[in-house]
Structure formats: structure tokens, C-alpha cells
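Dear colleagues,

As part of the handover before I leave the project, I'm documenting each prediction I ran so the next person doesn't have to rerun anything. This entry is a single chain, and its sequence is reproduced below.
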Amino acid sequence: MDTYHDVDLHDQSAHAGGSGSYGVYPFRGVSVDVYGMAGPSIVVANRIRKLGSVEVIVDGKQVALARLTADIPAYDRLICHITGLASGNHVLEVHAKDGWAVIDYIKVDSAASSATPTLGAGPLPEGDYAIFPRHAPTKCVDAAATAEGTIADIYAPAQGRFQVWRVTPLGQNRYRIAPKQAPDQVLTMTGPRYGDGMRVTLYHYVGDPTQQWILVPLSEGFYRLVVSSNTIACLDAFGGATTDGTGLIAYPVKQGDSQVNSNQQWFFQPVR
């Protein structure tokens, strides 16, 4: 989906796309509301686009299928209300069906849940995941592009960026991790040195140990990602910063409680 502008929309812009297009929005909370626009049509690139319906998926399961057609434009339309989610990270997907869909905004309730935390599992199944840092749960692992040398970072969920990752087991608890849209460009410890760590960027997979990550299970479903070529270094959000664009580095494993090393702990949320 792409950005669509209309002065009557929330913040005067939304995400819109035709049948077959979709948007992915990682979030952390226990409920989420999805708002959009209904009506007969919208105008995009000087062409009339008929509105259709939208499918809403949370954590790989369909939760709603709503028609967006109406005789007159209707803004701030509640498409669906999803509640009862376990406290933690989730992935919302919206898919346009049978015409165009306009997704205006989402509202997340991040109130704590009484659900019992789960322990880190063993081997991670092959699949597509959004990856969240423990110290900044509203951000996710991100790349602005898929070209070789692109610096990996953390960033708020956003259109036009690469935030869904293909995780492929290699045996002996080693994994390669690549953008879903560019599975041959993998997270790689490449340098140059950045502070006391080494830059992590995208690089064409050649089977080098700097491109393979050992997943160490931690508490509450989180993992530490250790570089296979240097097992004293792990994936780290530089300086523990939480701002968009904070670079990812390979940095020595920090000892201490979860508050000390929370920028070295990562949660993998499956994406369908």
C-alpha cells in the first residue's frame, strides 16, 4: 500500500492500495482498532478507483473481512476492533480485496495483561518474522533498502521499508536472516568498527560465519542473536538508543539483568 492524501483523513493522509496490495504493522499491546475510509471510490493518479473490502489478519489469523463500499464518503470508519490479545508483540496485516482499500490509522491499547509470560522456545521454525528489541518494543528490525551494504537498524513500523524477515535454519542452531523481499541479502557482521562493535549490514549470502546467527533462548520468548564467527558478540541496538534509525551492531555480550542487556534481546513475531 502507498500513501494517499485527503484533507478529511486523520493527519490528512492514509495508506491505500488496490486488490492484492497489503500493509504490515507490528505493534505491542492487548487490543487494536483499525480505522479506514468507506465510500464509492477515491481518485489516485487522476484515475477513479472503486473501493472494495479489506481483510484484517493478526498474527497470521484472519480476524475481520469488512466491506468499504458506501454511497457517500465516510471517514473515521471503524473497520474492526480486536481485543483479548496476549500482552506483547503482534503483527497486524491488512489486505485489499475486490477493489481498493484505505487504511487511515490504528489505535493500540498497550495495557498490561495478566497472561503468564512464556519461556523462550527452542529452535525457531523457518518462516517470516517481525523482530522486536526488548528495550524498544514499539520499534522493529528494519532496513531502508535491500541493496548490498544497507545498514540494518530499528525503526517504527512504516510503509516503504523492509521490516519482515525470512529466517532460515542452517543446522546446529544457526540461522540466516534476510528481508522477505530479498532473501539472498542477509544480516551480516561487516564492519567498519562502530564504537566498540561492528556494523551489521545486508550482504549477499556466501555462507560465511559472519552471516550466520546462533539463537540463544532467554526468558519470556526473547532470544539473543550471537554471531557464529565470534561467539562473544551478539546483535545489539547501538547504545541502547530507541530512536528511529538506531544502527544495529555486533557487540560483546553484556552480563547482568534484562535491564542491562535489553538492547541485546529480540522477540520474533511470526508474520503470515
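Residues 112-120 have pLDDT under 50 and may be disordered. The radius of gyration is 20 Å.

All the best with the project,
I.
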